Amino acid sequence: MRIQQFSVEEAIASLRSTPQGLSSAEARRRLLEYGPNRMERIAAEPLALRFLKEFTHFFALILWAAAALAFLGEWSAPGEGMAKVGYAIVAVIIVSGIFSFWQEYRVERILAELQKLLPRQVKVQRDGSLTQLPAEEVVPGDLLTLEQGDSVPADCRLVEVFGVRVNNATITGESLPRSCDAAPSAEHELIRSRNVLLAGTSMVAGQARALAFATGMHSEFGKIARLAQTVEKETSPLRVELARLSRVIAALAVAIGVLFFGVGLAIGIPVWKDFIFSIGIIVAMVPEGLLPTVTLALVLATQRMAKRNALIRYLPSVEALGAATVICTDKTGTLTQNRMTVKQLLLGDALVSPEVFLQQRELLERNRPFFTIARRCHDLREGRERGEPALRGDPMETALASMALQALPPEAAQGTKVDEIPFDAERMRLSIVFAQPQGRTLYCKGAPEAILPLCDRILLAGEAQALDAVRTRRIHATVAQMAERGLRVLALAYRPLEASVRRQELEQHLIFAGLAGLEDPPRPEVPQAVRRCRAAGIRVIMVTGDHPLTAAAIAREIGLVGEHPHVLTGEQLNALSDTQLRIALDAPEIIFARVAADQKSRIVEALKRKRHVVAVTGDGVNDAPALKSAHVGIAMGISGTDVAKEAADVVLLDDNFASIVSAVEEGRAVFDNIRKFLTYILAHNAAELVPYLGFALFTIPLPLTPIQILAIDMGTDSLTALGLGTERAGPGVMQRPPRSHDERLMNWSLALRAYLFLGLIEAAAAMAAFFFILRGAGWRYGEALAADSAVYLQATTACLTAIVAMQVVNVFLCRSRVRSALSAGLGGNRLILWGVLLEVSLILLIDYVPAANRLFGTAPLGGDVWLFLVPFALALLALEELRKWFARRMLAGQATP
Question: Which residue in 261, 346, 463, 690 is deepest, having the highest Cβ count within 10 Å?
Fold first, then answer.
């Protein structure tokens, strides 16, 4: 038997405790055996090692290798400028690594936030007397005293109960407080047992004595903490794609470098000179600016998302959100407003909304006792919120009292509370006696099935009349009708008390005053957000700890499901194998209700195995493991616990599900934009490679030096590439389905356009400019030129300038794969315009400032070179516009970036 199934005496005996609690000596012994009552840190990879990993991933290794080759080249042939190349590449690696590491540290803070949910001090029975101790010193077998407002420090078996209701939302996700009792339970699941309080939950009402039986990491709370630490973060699709792209580029660069090293040897180039030449090819092929540009583009995307109330905590999740195919969303606080609201009232024979009584004062006066019960029959405390008076306690009671405050004048609350019969699981009702000048009155509220049998009269038209069987059936039918809408139904009743009535007779001969149907209402923006998700091909699945009927009703109200969705409870989920669960997920409309933390993670894993990109929303501690295991974890910023926020990748600042849709739109734009600047970067890589091929195959002077290549990659093209990374989402981006799981960041279409179309046109312009200078100076084919000769310096400068000039045109062409640059115009993206200004300024500085001439091996150009490049720039524009025209005809009717 489990502890919840024992009687109170058996439970105490099973832990070798006593009704007076433990002795101090025994408590100290148990503290040594079981450890402090706190969240322990599971051994993890050292932070320093994780920091080093940012500099040792595959793309970083490629850059380290390129830097090492550059330094080796400088050692073998001093004065060639290769050291400058090496230092520049090392700087790129360091900046990118430090910038990416910041998000890793967040995992270290999860435990600290978990610990904050546990109380620091607790009342414990030790040596036969009540004493206050740090919560960390609680051990199994301790008897605790808890009251309204207390947080529960450990998993406890209730021993004595006085009107206890507990909020289990942080563990189970249930939105409504639950009543508890001390009787043995037949429930096998600990978290469903009514005689158990769980660590990390809070007492909403009542008082209790409870026996601690699980502390620290052995509690249900601790198990969630362990899951939150041990669940591995899913690698984002962007990181997977960048790793794949790195391998492709590395293989291509090394293959071409080795190939032309062999060609150089074959045509008689000295070994060391051939080696330097091969290094230059590798440097030309590796886009050194790719990682910094991706990182900065993601940072700027996070700033845009923050303006749309989505705070990004993990950079790659920006793009991963755009790739999402499924959103698993919690209900309470995510789709709903996380506050109880009175939705419907039965007053006499009238079924009305709460707004009606404010407009019809006559109806209000006839039913004044109903609102008096709602105002007085509760265990709420008065407090302040944002400087204003506020009621605190059970959200359901708060909703009823708030409604009554609108209906009744302040003097209606006058009177003195003289007695209370507390709520418990068996009675399912609460009764309070008030003394007033006209006498004592009992006010009662609770479950309709508990209240109606006690009533023999009903309030009709302001008068108490006999409650017959016909009216009772009508009331029961109304209760069923309200329950089908997912409302929590409460019955309210009262009775003026005679002076002679005995306490055990108080709850008899009651007058039925009416019904109140309460709900946690959906956010008004959610239905539209759900429709947008559906239009974008994103499936939304509700995964909640709430009751199935409540979940289904809310899902229907927001348009998430139709009349007959497939609803799976946590108990049913446990009976399914992994294969059966994956098959169940094929249902067109499915809702998961009454699920626990590990079950939510299991659902996420099943969807991932079905090759979905999964985003998960949540706000409680119980959501942390699923938030971490998903591709994108999304926490609520206002109602969410700190634990959920720390485990998540994205925090919604306004707790609005609709903000997710805006973030998805931004995420899709990010992937499209990465492709845009990847095309832009690879185009100049091809233009940088061709001069080396010409040098190797045709025995001409090297048209472009490695340091000049780096000037393009890390200098002139940096801001324009970043500008492409901040482009707004293209038209129709939310009308197309998520990209295929097999769709690559660099596909054949992108590679052919970048390398063999835009890149070759730019290369033609660069080589033409190079020979324009040489021929103008009288150079003849086969003639060698000194590396420091004025003619050679001018020729390489012309080659460099041509590539930069062509890239100025290309940046506008790359703003869309198919839309005309002329239709997009030159404006709309100030970062691109600033990038073009920087690009032109830098090339002028490189060409005409003496210090820059010495650094980059350049020389001033005449105006004729600039004029020579104009036809090439116009040709690039015309040819790309022609290609786009054909592409638009082929893709007519499709949403394209």
Answer: 346
Provide the number of structural domains found in the chain: 3
pLDDT of residue 643: 64
Contact between 858 and 793 under an 8 Å Cβ cutoff? The reply is yes
Write down the pLDDT at residue 108: 46
Phi-psi category of 648—alpha, beta or left, where left has phi over 0 and alpha has psi -120 to 50?
A: beta
Q: Which of 78-87, 139-148, 617-626 has the lowest mean pLDDT?
A: 78-87
- Do 556 and 477 sit in the same domain of this protein? no
- Indicate if 173 and 198 belong to the same structural domain: yes
The Cα–Cα gap between 399 and 613 comes to 39
Provide the 8-state DSSP code for 753: I
Alpha-carbon distances of 806 from 354, 409, 870, rounded to whole Å: 68, 77, 9
User: Is the pLDDT confidence value at 640 over 80?
Assistant: no
Q: For 227, phi and psi rounded to 5 degrees? A: -60, -45
The band of 579, judged by pLDDT with boundaries at 50, 70 and 90, is: very high
Q: What is the pLDDT of residues 32-56, one digit of tens each?
A: 999 898 876 655 566 677 778 777 7
Residues 529 and 443 in one domain: no
Q: What interhelical angle do 271-285 and 82-101 show, nearest 10?
A: 30
pLDDT tens digits, one per residue of 419-471: 888 776 567 788 999 998 888 999 999 888 889 999 999 999 889 999 999 99
Residue 861 one-letter amino acid? L
619 plus 641 within the same structural domain: yes
Last residue of a domain, one of 215, 230, 245: 230
Do 675 and 750 touch, CB atoms closer than 8 A?
Answer: yes
* CB-facing half-sphere around the CA of 263: CA atoms within 13 A: 17
Q: Exposed, middle or buried, 871 (CB in 10 Å: 0-12/13-18/19+)?
A: exposed
Domain range enclosing 636? 319-338+523-662
Q: pLDDT digit string (tens) for 333-367?
A: 778 877 788 989 999 888 888 877 777 777 888 88
Q: How far apart are CA 549 and CA 593, in angstroms?
A: 9
- Secondary structure class of 249 (helix, strand, coil): helix
Pairing of strands 614-618, 632-636: parallel
The whole model's pTM is what?
Answer: 0.64
- Residue 184 φ/ψ, nearest 5 degrees: -55, 145
Output 445-450 pairs: Cβ under 8 A, ≥24 positions apart.
445/373, 445/374, 445/377, 445/400, 445/490, 445/491, 445/492, 445/493, 446/490, 446/491, 447/489, 447/490, 447/491, 448/475, 448/476, 448/479, 448/489, 448/490, 448/491, 448/515, 450/491
Same domain, 55 and 200: yes
- Predicted confidence (pLDDT) at residue 231 exceeds the cutoff of 90: no
Same domain, 202 and 333: no
Tell whether 760 is covered by a domain.
Answer: no
The CATH number that applies at residue 347 is: 3.40.1110.10
Q: Are 622 and 491 in contact (CB under 8 A)?
A: no
Q: What is the pLDDT of residue 138?
A: 93
By annotation, the residues acting in catalysis are 330
The secondary element (H helix, E strand) that includes residue 535 is helix 526-535
Residue finishing a domain among 631, 662, 693: 662
Residue 404: phi and psi, rounded to 5, are -65, -35
